[in-house]
Amino acid sequence: VIIDEVGKLEIDNRGWADAVERLIRASSNNILMIVRDTFTGSVIKKWNISDPLIFRVPGTDPKDACEKMLDEK
User: How many Cβ atoms from other residues are within 10 Å of residue 65's Cβ?
Assistant: First the structure.
């Protein structure tokens, strides 16, 4: 599942917050969230995400990121 993008609205329980919550809690799939650097810590804390893989763009080779995500599966 790809969520583009989780930000201030969702952190403040607005926007797509309910849908993000349901996906995180109910999904047996991996979830890829696009989050601005300034909100990463808040998103991890809000949804109690353990052991997140964090890729910074630019700076991450897309092939390396894909391989790392597949290894986590």
Answer: 15
> Which amino acid would we find at residue 72?
E
CA angle centred on 62, ends 41 and 48, rounded to 5°:
25
> For residue 34, which of 18, 57, 68, 15 has the smallest C-alpha distance?
57
Q: Return the bridge partners of 2, or none.
A: 32
Q: pTM (2 decimals)?
A: 0.85
3-state secondary structure of 5: strand
Q: What is the DSSP letter of 38?
A: G
pLDDT tens digits for 34-66? Answer: 999 999 999 999 999 988 999 998 999 999 999
Strand partners, 3: 33
